[in-house]
Design brief:
Helix content: over 70%
Number of strands: 0
Largest sheet: none
Strand content: under 5%
Length: 88
């Protein structure tokens, strides 16, 4: 494949990722409402540990494992930041 073809495929995948992240953020809105009503803290380290373990176990190409886990770490951090901004 040439570079342009590869980039087109990446763009298509990026479109899917954006849609999925937006769906995830809609659910984060529900988490914000729940935590606001219940007084639960934003950070749940046990939940994050479970997520990281699930991600690790789902990565088929082990050479990508740490990069993908780090990506999820960034997603969770951004989610916490969003919750922090909207819970107050």
């Amino acid at each position: 494949m040439d570079l342009d073809s590869i980039r087109q495929e990446i763009d298509q995948i990026d479109d899917q990722i954006v849609k999925l992240l937006e769906e995830r953020m809609h659910l984060v809105e529900e988490v914000v409402a729940y935590k606001k009503a219940s007084g639960k803290p934003i950070l749940d380290t046990k939940r994050e540990a479970v997520i990281f373990e699930k991600v690790r176990s789902r990565v088929e190409e082990k050479r990508y494992q740490e990069t993908i886990v780090a990506t999820f770490s960034d997603i969770l951090k951004r989610s916490r930041d969003y919750q922090d901004q909207n819970i107050k």
